[in-house]
Amino acid sequence: MNGALYGLIARFEDPSQLVDAARELRAQHYTRFEGYTPYPVEELDHLVRGHNFLPAIVLAGGVLGAITAWSMETYIAIVDNPLNVGGRPLYSWPSFVVILFELTVLFASLSAFFGMLALAGFPRPHHPLFGVPGFSSVTRDGFFLCVEARDPVFHPEHTAALLRQFDPLEVREVEND
Asked: How many other C-beta atoms lie within 10 A of the C-beta of residue 2?
């Protein structure tokens, strides 16, 4: 794999060619590819979808928030500031529920926000695909399929030949910035 090569991008005339190419890439065990279209293509979404780590990140954030709230409230109620109010026990969990819920939601939402940014690769002011001639047409009438060079199955010549089987308008190398 060449360090300066981001991947290969193929431009197709219509979405059916793009979906066929993506289906073949999936059949050949490619995992790092993405489709770019001016409107949603449902078949393509099912083919290029990778594993989504965001739900696990949000769950971990929520659990961390709940543990933080419970630990903080338990420490305050028993060790730091024990108050005997009306003969109730120092550890009275029903009074902890509101803050436990609040911190669980707070930590889960913050981990969702920052996890989404991290998984999307932000901050990234310039993506290598922005330098591909004609890529701006993806917002109007362009259908593109990009295979990343970091894919374990990627080989420049073999992948380009595989993409050319589906009669694209062009296949280009995309250089890393």
From this structure: 10
